[in-house]
Design brief:
- This protein is an all-alpha fold and 808 residues long.
- It has 38 helices and no strands.
- Helix 3 packs across helix 5, helix 9 packs parallel to helix 12 and helix 31 crosses helix 33.
Length: 808
Amino acid sequence: MCNLMVFSLKIPAVMEVQMAGGLAAKRGGGLPKLRELLRRQRRDSDSQNDSPDLEFEYDDANKYTQEIAELYSYTEEPEFALCQKCFEEDFHSYIKEKWTQLSPDRQRMHILRLLNSVESAKREQRMKSARAVLYLAQGCFSECSSEEEQVKRARENCFLLYECSVFNTFVELLSMEAENSVAASTALRKPAVSIVDSTDLRIVLSVLYIMIETLRMDSDQDSDKQKHQREIFKTELGQPVCGEDSLAIVLFNMVTKFCSGHAPHFPIKKILLLLWKTLLFSLGGINEYKLMKQQARKAADLDAVKEDTIQVTKTMRASSPPASSGDGLQERRTRGSLRRNGIDEPMPEDPDRREEESKEEQLNGGSEEEEENSSQPPPTPREHKALPWTPKVRQKDLDVFLDHTRRKFVGFQVQSDSDTLAGLPQPIHEGVHVLKKHVYVSLAEIQIKQEEQINKNPISKGEENIPATATELLYQAVLPNLPQYMISLLKILLAAAPTSKAKTDSINILADVLPEEMPITVLQSMKLGVDVNRHKEVIVKSISALLLLLLKHFKLNHVYQFEFMSQHLVFANCIPLVLKFFNQNIMAYISTKNSINVIDFPLCVIGDQPELTAESLEAGDTIPYCWRNLFSCINLLRILNKLTKWKHSRTMMLVVFKSAPILKRALKVKQAMMQVYVLKLLKVQTKYLGRQWRKSNMKTMSAIYQKVRHRLNDDWAYGNDMDARPWDFQAEECALRACVDRFNTRRYDQCTPKDPEYQPVDNNPQSVLSQKMELSEEFQRFYEVWLDREVFTTQINWDLLLKDKICT
């Protein structure tokens, strides 16, 4: 019996030894495969992370030469020689010297002579002289030997053209051509509109664009007279030039007319570029906006803003893109298999296997890890380990914090009191001190409070001094038709987006790029394909920059002007449109360069021109991104941020349209500024995405913590926001719209009658008796009867009447 028990005890021991040996064998066979799998995954992720940061510098616009080159499509290349011919035929008919050899006075005389011809009633003579003026604005490129010389000559000529009032003449010519019903009806009758139908408009728009873009750029070599001329020109751009409309309103109306289908021949790219640069020059760019904001905050007794987003993001390093869902799933499976196999612990290595691996590595010239280490670039300097932004707190957040703590520790609330801390523990005192230290009061809060005071006290505070700034004049001009303007711009943006499909009811934005005769060779087809894509990219760039510029300046001028424009953008489906734009391979969109450098202006007209081949079409610079596409993406992200900031209903739109995976793909672009705005959009909707999303996207959550500004008591990573109540979303938008409508009615609607309680009363007897009263026909007919009955035949005891009056 004892032997049997001993035998039965030995069997499990033997089985354990055999099982351990089998498991070791399995480990030995499966471990190299797992090592190879992990090594491959690490190599793939390193290849993604090793891509360098894009050295992109955000600005108001690209370099001057690039902005001028994007004005022209490649289909317009033959027209440069035609402009030169028109100028030289007229110029050399009575002058033998070159243009650059003339004195400034003789140059002005010739410009005035051209202006007389521009005002001619004959179209052929008028457009021939307009082409000659365009050649002057282009810098007389036939007399230039380099691009730098052409830029210099163009600047000198543009100042001369401005002195001779060419700009005002061409604005009137633009207004006349825009109202040309003959050209519009001709284009409507044609089955396909081409670039030929917009020839006259393109000449006029090109002259205006070159003058504005040239004078917009400041130069250290400008004289005091030229600097003064630039300031006068900047002021004139916001003033009425055609009747009561400024140039910007004329262009806005042209955009609306184009989208309505009444003028399909309009060169929409040139119109949008001119509209953008007109507003950019008249309202002010980044530096002017920063200065105006500091002045406005100083006037409101607020602290100056010490941090600038553009400057802060310049010092940031871009984060590595988060792994895709497939990579994360494979990594979790690998971890699970490791845990199930029980090999979380490091394995004792087999000495024979180690010797074999070392011999193979010596024969193969080293391991893959050594090769990777040897090919790695030198280590970059370590970043300063600190958050890039100073935290902010709203006064509303401080009040909510105090109400919550008082209700918890004291049992009652104290309205509109953020100083009394009686009964609260010492840690709460310290917390309130920290919050007060980081309270940030925005201009919008001050403006909203002022508007509330005016509505409460319309008599004492109703009079408001409205400064006639460029932004204020623009808002007053666009206010009646702003919804139509926003819808038209978004329609064009939708048609130009790379993700939009061609539809029969969509507008044709290619009228000013398609030639009259379609290409017949492969090279011409390739050139036209590049031209069409470039045309769409420039349109996206101009619309995105234009919308962002308007939003920024309207918000600075008055927050309700900004909210009025924002609401109409939201109502026109701007949020899903921008998300649709980003629902593509955004890395491919940013890195694709649809440009042909050898035929860009002015390279295509200076010196000997090389023959255009398929290789020259693909040749380009070594920059790994397209400036205008990255610029457009950042602008659209900034627009999306401005529309959704502190708006829970619009944030829920981001969640409903499933923007999180779309925005996560945009993080693959290793550019710090773009990543900051993507992370901001992800941060505001994190609380709605659920715990599982936050758990599986910890790398993104870490990037948000590192790069986005902190609100000290904002539970963005959890979901404890008391303001995020979905049943209040519609009420929030309705309340905002009521405030905006009240603001517009009070400040700008002069036709709406005011409340009679607040109307002034005329108490002068002479003026009251002298007013003409409208009497009915019945009263006039029976007036004598009434007079006899009520006055003559009635006896009045005046003493009794006066006595009763005194007694009362």
